[in-house]
Design a protein that fits this description.
alpha/beta, five-stranded mixed beta sheet, three-stranded antiparallel beta sheet, 8 strands, 31% helix
Amino acid sequence: MPVITEGRLSFTFPANWTATKFDEWSFYRNQFQGICGGAKAIDILAIEQDCCWLIEIKDYRHQRRTKSGHVAEEVASKVRDTLAALAAARVNANDATERATAQAALRRDRIRVVLHLEAAGRTSKLFSPSLDAANVLQRLKQCLKPVDPHPRVCSSARMAGCDWNVA
């Protein structure tokens, strides 16, 4: 089973899936990241039978969000840049494994986007309205409709139908 650790979270995917830390690909870091003044990438790329999952992880349990923009818009930008990076990696990646993984991801029938959002247990409506899961989901739907009209926002306590485990 592919297991990916991101910060304090460990993601365990089903055995027949391919999962990789996309933002650590050598193609992304060495060839693509500097394009057009700087590109961002999602944390995990996971591939199953007919679906390519783009998973972004935000863990605010121990440190508050300090960025001023809405978290959904940040995720949408990363999704856009990641899809562009995958298209380029499919033909230009120097690493054969990354090139093959990009090809496999782009051959899938569906693209799904998941924001794994761990928020502090006690939130204030005054200081963190951009981290309310319902608010984030609504904004994600608006931003990502052409890519995934039904994105998901999940957490360790509420996996929202995702087939992997998080500990």
